[in-house]
Design brief:
The chain is of the alpha+beta class. It has one domain: FAD/NAD(P)-binding domain, CATH 3.50.50.60. It contains eleven helices and 19 strands. Strands 1, 2, 8, 9, 10, 11, 17 and 18 form an eight-stranded mixed β-sheet that branches. The chain has an eight-stranded mixed β-sheet with strand order 6-5-13-14-15-12-16-19. α8 packs antiparallel against α9. The radius of gyration is 21 Å and the shape is globular. The two termini are 37 Å apart.
């Protein structure tokens, strides 16, 4: 059995794992990425917010990503709950806070393919398309056992292996999980009218129904509904589904047709007791799982990676190794509050839509009305959503050097 040694090993070759491997290799660390690519098309997209765009620019992959993405210049919210306190539709425009777009929407698989292409040519990065079967630590670092034989040793192991992370389980890191009485149906659609780079979110009593622009007259849909209704919708033929979408969207984009694969995602959440263990750091869905609301999941995963990168760089300047206790404690401090706040925000929004209680409806409607009519408040909220000023990792500030 052969053993290879690296500074940093990343396990999991999704978008978060690929970005982590690229980030560390970019800084000169001998890095290995372990795992096979998942390029199945399931109708899911991600809206990359401003910080994620800057991060991808720093990794040198943004031009390839932008070519397959559509800008989100306006975000429109329509209260379709039937509440007595239903406010008028609200529109938020990126130009109001000096941005060309709040973010860019791209199919998940296209993003993974762009990151993978960059990884194949990145110096100091080795790709090992195998599954990991074992994980252990000793004084020198962490050791990963591969399915086809051989081991990998590294000072820092980065677990980017998803919500069912084997590395997290082997490290004994506890989790809290919860679920909602909903599922989200995802699908790619073509439509008769231009979306005008506008994302439209209908707040319904069963959850958000969100149409997000893609290049051309195409949009991605996340339709959150009761589990039974989401299963019914996902079982419709293309023509019936397109008609159901058009009606739910109040014909706002004209006639629809299904233009890509569809998926069905149970609405659930996961949080962890801590973000690291001995020589191990958790990133992405190994550390937190969100329902597909508010574009938080992958953007938060990229923020994990950029924050871990800062902790490793700063720890190194103080003489600590990438997987040292001091470096990982710095990472823990950098992630805890950010993740908790985002988790609470997404959970709170979803539950307020489901409750149907008059006081809750009143507060939600009053809040949206205030954002629509009070310009300074609206701009503060928009900036915090896409351009937070506190605790932003350096690569998300547009800083290209360590």
């Amino acid at each position: 059995m052969t053993e290879s040694t690296y500074d940093i090993a990343v396990v999991g070759a999704g978008a978060v794992g690929l970005s982590a491997a690229l980030a560390f290799a970019r800084d000169g660390y001998r890095t290995v990425l372990v795992g096979g690519l998942d390029v199945r098309r399931d109708g899911r997209t991600v809206a990359l917010l401003n910080g994620s765009v800057r991060f991808l620019e720093a990794l040198g992959v943004w031009p390839a990503v932008a070519a397959a993405a559509a800008p989100l210049e306006t975000m429109r919210i329509v209260d379709d709950t039937g509440s007595l306190f239903r406010p008028p539709p609200a529109a938020f425009r990126a130009g109001e806070i000096g941005l060309d777009a709040f973010g860019w929407n791209i199919e998940n698989v296209a993003l993974v393919e762009a990151l993978a292409e960059a990884a194949r040519t990145r110096e100091a990065l080795t790709l090992v398309p195998e599954f990991a079967t074992g994980f252990a630590t000793d004084e020198a670092g962490a050791v990963l056992t591969l399915a086809e034989g051989g081991t990998i040793r590294a000072g820092l192991m980065v677990a980017a292996d998803g919500r069912n992370s084997k590395l997290r389980q082997k490290a004994g890191i506890g989790t809290q999980t919860w679920s909602y009485p909903q599922s989200a149906m995802t699908v790619i659609l073509a439509h008769d009218r231009d979306h005008r780079e506008t994302s439209t979110e209908f707040h319904t009593r069963h959850g958000p129904f969100t149409l997000v622009p893609l290049p051309g007259r195409r949009s991605s849909l996340v339709w959150v509904a009761s589990k039974a209704e989401a299963e019914r919708l996902s079982g419709l033929d293309d023509a019936a589904l397109a008609l159901a979408v058009e009606r739910q969207a109040q014909s706002h984009l004209g006639a629809m047709r299904v233009d890509g694969p569809r998926g069905l995602v149970p609405m659930s959440g996961l949080s962890v007791n801590r973000y690291s263990s001995r020589h191990l750091a958790l990133v992405g869905e190994a550390a937190h799982v969100f329902p597909p609301i508010g574009a938080q999941g992958l953007n938060l995963g990229f923020r994990d990676v950029a924050s871990l990168r800062d902790a490793v760089i700063d720890g190194g300047e103080e003489g600590h190794g990438p997987g040292s206790d001091e470096t990982l404690a710095r990472y823990q401090r950098g992630r805890d509050l950010d993740v908790r706040l985002r988790t609470a925000a997404v959970d709170g929004l979803n539950r307020t839509l489901l409750t149907g209680m008059i006081p809750t409806d009143f507060l939600r409607g009053a809040g949206l009305l205030a954002l629509s009519n009070i310009g300074p408040l609206r701009r503060i909220v928009m900036r915090e959503g896409v351009l937070p000023r506190v605790g932003v990792p350096r690569l998300m500030q547009g800083v290209s050097s360590g």
